[in-house]
Design goal:
alpha/beta, Amidase signature (AS) enzymes, 11 strands, binds glutamine
Length: about 500
């Protein structure tokens, strides 16, 4: 068995036990990248020089008998909207094509303190706006299960890198589904932690009340290892929760007896692919057989989540992206006569069509005369959705729904209609609106052999219950053991 196909937990153990050197692990993963990346295009930047330097330092410390951390020597990929000191962070936008941060995001510091090695920065939808990674200014990332199809988005590069075994784990960001939906399309585990559990310091902001960083991994155990490192209070993020540190690995128990799993029958209705529905029904059966109690619940406001999201998220984006003016940093137009023309030209050239659409929508819903009708109303509906989940969790421990209504689609299939694209997030967006933790786990394949994801949702900061249920589902199925073909045509 090749090194690159081991799990994160396995490779970390081999390094610690000195069965392999960190350099051997790096050589192996970079040669895998060399072989597969030309087909998949998951990365924007590779950081070999830095990675080998760190590998040498870590190996020396290990050889001196030091503890190099739980992720000691493990190569990991990072979404290109997370700041890395001295390494370009482009957000897959022309606007930030040449932006090199002078500091690390808190999550990068935490990963490095735990011994991880950054392999490179991954492709994404421009400024994390999209569900297919097609809005990237640089390249199209392909789905390792069918190279003619999208990997999902916006963290498509991070999902594809883990799926194609070009990284043991990766980081993504999830504002409306950008970790869970690509995880579902690429058959990997994708975890969006509770809002406030993982620091957003150094994450380039899209919609600040919804954004959250989380891991992609090949197994629930690996995702849990990552969460243990990432979670925790950070003074640099005012929305960071100040809670006692937990050991999430305690949740890795294959047992759901006594747990109640909620099935929102009024939410999973029309617009769902028949094969996804069948996989969902089978997943319910799996959990029942594993000893969980299955209970029907109602989430009557969840269907308004998408409408709410496209007001709240665009409003926040229009404000966050105001900083890209061509003056302080980012792309600056060359020919201009006055300040206003400099702003206009820099932004016209620097942003792609989807980002412009979001800025215009957001500016509109915040403008005087429309604020009450749209933004204020959306905030009110947001509260109803939060209450809706609170009530639902009086009757169950964890909610189970599909991650996305469909499986991966072909390039260009939804590009003409933004609304069709937005509908791919119908099952993931409510979780961000309510700030809850959610995880997507490999949950089967459609008749073409394309991956399907099953999503679990828990109460705020109840990651332990979430992970235990997800782990049990994984241990009672074998979908996560299947590997992609990295070929075209399904
Ligand atoms: N696809 C959603 C959007 O386009 C969510 C993106 C995200 O989670 N970053 O906004």
């Amino acid at each position: 068995m090749s090194l690159y196909s081991l799990t994160l937990t396995e490779v970390a153990k081999k390094i610690k036990n000195k069965e392999v050197t960190i350099k051997e692990v790096l050589d192996d993963i970079y040669s895998r990248i060399e072989a597969v990346e030309p087909k998949v295009d998951a990365y924007i930047t590779l950081t070999q020089d830095l990675a080998y330097k760190r590998a040498e330092e870590l190996q020396q410390r290990l050889d001196n008998g030091e503890d190099i951390g739980v992720l000691g020597g493990v190569p990991i990929a990072i979404k290109d909207n997370i700041c890395t000191n001295g390494v370009k962070t482009t957000c897959a936008s022309r606007m930030l094509e040449n932006f090199t941060p002078i500091y690390d995001a808190t999550v990068i510091k935490r990963l490095e303190e735990a011994g991880a090695i950054v392999l490179g920065k991954t492709n994404m939808d421009e400024f994390a706006m999209g569900s297919s990674t097609e809005t990237s200014y640089f390249k199209k990332t392909k789905n390792p299960w069918d190279l003619a199809r999208v990997p999902g988005g916006s963290s498509g590069g991070s999902a594809a890198a883990v799926s194609a075994q070009m990284a043991y784990a990766s980081l993504g960001s999830d504002t409306g589904g950008s970790i869970r939906q690509p995880a579902s399309y690429c058959s990997v585990v994708g975890l969006k932690p509770t809002y406030g559990l993982v620091s957003r310091f150094g994450l380039v902001a899209f919609a600040s009340s919804l954004d959250q960083i989380g891991p992609f991994a090949r197994t629930v155990e690996d995702a849990t290892m990552m969460l243990n490192v990432l979670a925790g209070h950070d003074n640099m993020d005012t929305t960071s929760a100040n809670l006692e540190k937990q050991d999430y690995t305690e949740a890795l128990v294959n047992d759901v007896k006594g747990k109640v799993i909620g099935i929102p029958t009024d939410f999973i209705t029309e617009g769902i692919h028949a094969d996804v529905k069948a996989a969902y029904d089978k997943a319910i059966e799996t959990m029942k057989n594993a000893g969980a109690e299955i209970k029907e619940i109602t989430l009557s406001y969840a269907k308004y989540s998408l409408a709410t999201y496209y007001i709240v998220a665009t409003a926040e984006a229009s404000s966050n992206l105001g900083r890209y003016d061509g003056i302080r940093y980012g792309h600056r137009a060359e020919d201009f006569n006055d300040l206003e023309e400099l702003y206009r030209k820099s932004r016209t050239e620097g942003f792609g069509p989807e980002v412009k659409r979001r800025i215009m929508l957001g500016t509109y819903v915040l403008s005087s005369g429309y604020y009450d009708a749209y933004y204020k109303r959306a905030q009110q509906v947001r509260t109803l959705i939060v209450e809706n989940f609170k009530k639902a969790f009086e009757d169950c421990d964890v909610i189970m729904i599909p991650t996305a209504p469909n499986t991966s689609f072909k390039f260009g299939e939804h590009s003409a209609s933004p609304l069709e694209m937005y509908l791919e997030d119908i099952y993931t967006v409510p979780v961000n609106i309510a700030g809850l933790p959610g995880i997507s786990v490999p949950g089967g394949f459609d008749s073409k052999g394309l991956p399907i994801g099953i999503q679990f949702i828990a109460k705020s900061f109840d990651e332990k219950n979430l992970l235990q249920v997800a782990y049990t589902f994984e241990q009672n199925t074998d979908y996560h053991t299947k590997e992609p073909t990295i070929e075209e045509g399904k």
